[in-house]
Every structure is written in C-alpha cells, then in structure tokens.
Amino acid sequence: MTSTYDILYERLAATFDRVQPGAEPVLRQSEHGDYQANGVMALAKTLGRAPRDLAAEIMADLDLAGIASVGVAGPGFLNITLLASFLDQQLREVLVDQRLGVALPTVAKNVVIDYSAPNVAKEMHVGHLRSTVIGDALARMYRFAGHHVIARNHVGDWGTPFGMLIEHLIDLGEEQALASLSIGDLDSFYRAARKTFEEDDNFKERSRQRVVALQSGDPETRRLWQLLVDESISYFAEVYAKLDVTLQPSDVVGESYYNDMLESVVTDLEAHGLITVSDGALCVFPPGFTNREGEPLPLIVKKSDEGFGYAATDLAAVRDRVTNLEADELLYVVGAPQSQHFDMIYAVARLAGWLPESVRCEHVAFGNVLGPDRKMFKTRSGETVKLVGLIDEATERAYVALEERKSDLNDRQRRELSVQVARAAIKYADLSTERQRDYVFDLDRMLAFEGDTGPYLQYAHARVRSIFRRLGAPWDGASASFALENDAERSLALGLLAFPEAFHLALESLQPHRLCVYLFDLAQRFTAFYEACPVLSAVGHTRDERLALCELSARTLNLGLSLLGIDAPDQM
Q1: Are 210 and 202 in contact, with CB atoms under 8 Å apart?
Q2: Which of 159, 504, 515, 538 is most buried as measured by Cβ atoms within 10 A of its Cβ?
Q3: What is the pLDDT of residues 420-467, one digit of tens each?
Q4: Could you write out the three-class secondary structure of 276-298?
Q5: Which domains are delineated in the chain?
Q6: What pLDDT sits at residue 379?
C-alpha cells in the first residue's frame, strides 16, 4: 500500500513543481491540522511573491479530492485535514498489511555497516555499548526496509600487543590460558601480560621477536594467535546473545583480514601521485584539513618505522567494501572523537577513486555513556565497566521489579521476562537519546515502567494484548471499518498511519531516536484512547472498530520495538 504521507507528498510535490521545478513542500504533521505544508514561504521568497497569495494559488491547483481539505493559515502555511472516508480507507489497508504501510524499495542496496569492534583478548566494556546497540538497530532497520545488510565487526586482532599476549599464553600453558579466556576473564589475561611486559626485559624481547614471527607468517605463531582470536570471538558472541544483538562470528572481519592489502594501498596511492614523504613517513595531505596552526594535516599511511597504522587498514577496508562487496552505502558506527579521522579517510579514498560519489559513506558518530556524576562511566575503583556486568545487574534488578508487581507469571516466566526487560531498558535508553549527545546510565530510571523508557513501551504493548486475552475467543477484525467519531480514536488513527514516515525519517537520517519518539507518542495516544473509549463494553460496529485500533496499536508497537532490537512481551 502507499502510505498516507507519500500520498499527500506526491500530490503536493506535483503542484509545487508546476510552480517551481524541484520546490520542496516541507510536509509535516501539525497541531493546526493533520498535516502542514511549510514550503510556501521559502518558495515565495525565491519567486518574489507574497506568501499568502502563492499559498492560495497552490491550494487552488492542488488535487486532494477524496483525500483532504486544505486551508491557508498564518503567513502562508497550508493546513491539511484528512477526510474521514480517506482515513477509513487507509486504516482498512494497513490492517491487512503485515508491513504496516512501509513499502519495499524498487532497488535493494548493498549496505555495509561497521559496528561494535571490540579488541581480541580484551573485555567488552561500556564503551562498546553505543556502537553495538546503534549499529544493530540500523542493521535491523535496513533489513526491514528491504536492503541487503553486510555487517562488519572490525575487531582489533592484529598489531604489536599480540607479541606479549602470545608469549603470556605460552608461559601459562595453552590449557590454563584457554580456560581463563573461555570464562570471559579477558581483562585479567591482558593485564597480566602487560604487567610482565613492563617488568621483565627478557619477556619484552621475546614479545618483540614474536611480533616479527607473527607478521612474517610463522605457522606456530599464527596458530597461537588464532587461539586467542577464536576464544575472544566466542566470548563476544556470548555477550551479543545476552543483548540479543544480531552480530555473528561470521561477521567478524578484523584488522588482520586487511593486512595483505596494505602494500597495494600504498602502491595505488603512489600511482595516483597522492603520497608525500614527511619525516620519513608516507602521507597523504587531503585538501581542506589543517592543524591548529593552519598547516596541512597529514593522513599517515605508512609510518617511518615501516609499520602501518589504522589509516592504511581503514583505506584498505573502504576499497575492499566498494570493490569486492559492491557496497552502495558504507556506515561506520564509531564514537564522535573519530570524526576527523573518518573524514580524512573518505576524502583520500575519493581522491584515489576507490569511493565513487554514487556511494554514500557516513560516519555514524555518537556521544559517551556517563555515570551519575556526568563523567565517563567508571566503577568506584575507577575501572572501565564491563558490559556483561551491566547486563547481568540490569537483569537481576528487572527480576526484583517484576516480583513487586502483581501478575500471573510463574518464576520461570518472570526470569525470562526479566531478561527481555533488562535488554529493553539498556537499549532504549541508548537509542532514545539523539546519538550525537552523551547520556547518563541510570538503571533506576531506565528500568522504570513509567515515562519514556523501554519497559514502559513493553508494558504498553502487553496492556493492549491483555484486551484480546479478556475477549475469551479469537478475533478476526479484517472486515472492520473506521468511523472515528471520538477525538481520541482519530488521534490514535493518525498516529498509527504515521508509522511509515517515522520509520523512513529515522532510517534516512540514521537517527534511531526518531523511531523511539514516535513509539512513545503512539503509546501515549493509545493510553488516551483507552481511557476515553471503552473497548470490551462497546457493542457492534464500535466494538469492532476499537478492537481493530487496538490490534494495529499492538502490531505497530511490536514491529517498532523489534526494529530497535527490543522484545514486545504479550504479558507482563
């Protein structure tokens, strides 16, 4: 089906285009009508016309017969009120549409999403939370939109630290080392290796030699390295399972994958005349980047000691993803401090011809997770907070909160539900925040069943589903019609029909919080409807209509939450 927004936009755009080709209607939902077209003022300024006169001309030419009535307000706004018959038609169509009005694209894109990216032999901590949760939500949204998602978990699995890690593994013995890693004690393993490296000169020299052996392809060293990688990836998978994140071990394509491509990256850049030698390092100076003194800023591709840094690996990854994966979009879900680095990577990749203008390339930047003191979230001893510890604590606290609520759930059901509630609390708190902003990690607020939280939306869904349990018999409302005589009914209907535009706005802007805003608003509209419009005590057509609105509300909340990676339980 064609969404309500798309129908209106197509009609408005056609009229605006007749006045001025390419003019934008700027269509939005409004309190002064169901929708408002705000593009008249900008168009009037371009044409040197009086806005209200131009609005009247556009309104006279606008074909919205059978769809809506239109009026001019203020300096030239077009207020649009949908007709009852059109709302009835749209609701009937969405009621039998499993996609709730979200159409599939005519051409599916290949979208590579780079997210999570922990380091081998290091614990996943709170610093990995935002990349993992935001990246996974975008992956789910792109898949639902009909595109082909290629997830890339760019783990840190290469470089000089692996010399000391392999030597520490040898000193411990494989069996003891792997036992330690398999129970998720990655931090202790890494800290012990680092401590020995700093205190023992013999161990330090062995570690350096081991790095040379690793980089030269020594079979035994590579085998030991692979043990570290495999154990770490297995542990990461357990953490992802706790969070219900869709990343799989097969999505791991770490730094080591690109190692054999790095020399050809340099050769390619030299062939394009882009390499400059600066203080013995091979650099590219992309135009427009300067340091604080206004001097050209280099992207160091190969260091003076002949080693390769992150820039070379990231350039190799861009080239591989465009050339071999045939990516139409590249998304990097990485913290905001890396913005300049990625801007320079994209600029150099475009100069080298690896990144055509037709390929969208975006750094999906995000802010920090803060503690209650509004500083970087740490433990009381000042250590980084382990991600698995946060999840477990949230789960236990969710269980306690559920125990305090009256319900018919047995202990097993309560345990299962506590996992779902904990995930919802953690994910929604992250995703409902505009991603460029920092937010405070506060489990008390996040686990609340009231306010703008994940558990509140889960409860809203369960509340709707409880209506159908009380029916006592299966309900088939496919033939329902919608008179929408009550204001609360009409408000809920408009909210339900707005799902496609909310979804596309969140996806196109790469801002999941916009979907969260929509879902919270929908839950509030449903609450207002439920309080004003009796459902089960209604009779005849009114009862069927209200049950149909309940059904659509539950399905929309369920689908919207699933796109954020959040379960929508039927009972709480």
Answers
A1: no
A2: 515
A3: 999 999 999 999 999 999 999 999 999 999 999 999 999 999 999 999
A4: EEECCEEEECCCCCECCCCCECC
A5: 4-82 (3.30.1360.70), 110-155+256-363 (3.40.50.620), 161-245 (no CATH), 387-444 (no CATH), 454-563 (1.10.730.10)
A6: 67
